[in-house]
Amino acid sequence: MKRSLSSLWLLLMAVMITGSYLGTHVSQSASAGETPGQVKSGVPHEAVTDAQTIQHDPIVPAHKRGQDPLKPQASSSVFQTQPREGKSVGFDFSRDPLGSERPLQEVEEMIRTDRANKPAVMEAQRKLLERRYHLKPRLDPEAKMSRGKPLAVGPTSRLPEGMTWDRLGKLSVDEIRQQGLFPYPSLPHPLQSTGGQVFPRMQIDVFPRLERIDVDFDLPEAFLPEFPPAIFLNNRPELGDVSRGSIVSINNYYRLFKDLLTPVQLDGLRLLVTPFPQEEFNSTDDRKSLQPSLGVTCFDCHVNGHTTGQFHLNPDTRPQERRMRLDTTSLRGLFNQQIHGSKRSLRSVEDFTEFEQRTAYFNGDHIHAAKKGMNILDRIPVSHMAQMQNMFDFPPAPKLEPMTGRLDPRKATEAELRGEKVFFGKAGCAECHTPPFYLDDKMHDLHLERFLKDEPGDGPIKTFTLRGIKDSPPYLHDGRLLTLEDTVEFFNLIGAVKLTQEEKAALVAFLRAL
Asked: 38 φ, ψ to 5°?
């Protein structure tokens, strides 16, 4: 009886202490004005992290196990006289991780190897970027993204000593190629042999579950979109940014949007913030996260329906060394796009959503998906996800005429108007980027192999919209163009349009107004 009373007393004391701590913690958070989902110092509570955090794992690491009590006994002694003693000694896809150096290689060994190699991988990428770019950002004192992040100003590409952009622009394609002067070769994934999704540090600081053991993000934050991005809804344009400064996740989506979306759209948003297994983030040994993972969400890449520069490899190409780095694109204005995927040319957002879930999450490989957790969605929830994706609007562009998408001369500056003239005239930008949404729903091949001796080119890539483009650096499908100024210099070269410095500056001013 005394022991029972003593145990009860200890339990009550534990509850009181825990309650006191939680009350103090909540009070302090409230007094600091914190709202669930907002980016604050430290790591916020997140349901996905809680669900996949190991509380108690009785499995002992392989190097401490000694003799394995689960080691099988052959069902017949006759096997000792048969080839390989009746054993399957080769690689077993369902058991051995992709990239295993030998059958039955333990995951702990692979993790140790990946972690040991990571510093050298990132040092090599850092040196590459520093050879190619001026990475110390120059920030525009006035031009801002939708939530106030200053725009980085370029061009950032390093030219050979004595070379200028004007001189480079006057050279022929053959001269540029023969002299190796093209300043914008493809931007490689830091770890091409493995590839896969890589998230920027600013996002990992909030969601540590997205950190990889083998590779880190490579570009400086100044050249990335703001985090978290703004959210604009085409069903409530009068509200402007509805993000409230939050990162939309499974923790807060209902609270933030229950009064703004229909039940169907809200259910689609639920699925967009629900984690599903992916090539590098899953619960098997064949992963690149330190601990087993539930996976990633659509909104881990398309943060708030936009992007913060996450990259992976395109799922449409083989072999591995031929694949391209691919930046995450924004979902803004998806309702006006007729083809989806950089190279896949999928004809509906429903098809795109289904394809991403079944294979693109797994590098375009349905066999890997079957092993790690293919998510087969019925067409009804797929349509819910598609309807939600179609709600994301472009940021406001108050200087554009609503009907034509052209500048309103009463609101635009002289520089912006000159840039518009260059855009629709000498530069020829409107051949692909047609107003009012500045895309043509076509795929075009720029034939960049014309300029490079050792690159085969990228083939046809779809035209991306230019609406709200200042919110979406870096540019081109692989992010090799860090600023809008770099983008103008790039197209000035491949189009051989020979813009003057004044025309280039005016064109950047016009692009910022979109």
From this structure: -80, 150
Q: How far apart are CA 309 and CA 320, in angstroms?
A: 22
Q: Which whole-number Å values give the CA distances from 116 to 110, 113, 196, in the listed order?
A: 10, 5, 19
Q: CA-CA distances (angstroms) from residue 436 to 8, 52, 141, 235, 433? A: 71, 45, 29, 19, 9
pTM strictly above 0.85: yes
Phi, psi (5° rounding) for residue 327? -80, 150
Structure-token pair, residue 123: 């040092």
Q: Which amino acid is at 479?
A: G
Domain ranges of the chain: 139-188+397-513, 194-389
Given CATH 1.20.58.220, say whether it is the number of domain 139-188+397-513: no
Classify 114 as helix, strand or coil: helix
- At 71-106, the pLDDT tens digits run 778 999 998 999 998 988 888 888 888 878 889 888
Distance CA 491, CA 166 (A): 14
User: Within 10 Å of residue 87's Cβ, how many Cβ atoms?
Assistant: 11
Q: How far apart are CA 193 and CA 322, in angstroms?
A: 11
Question: What are φ and ψ of residue 276, in 5° steps?
Answer: -130, 150
Placement of tokens 């992007």 in the chain: 307
Query: What share of the chain in percent tops pLDDT 90?
Result: 72
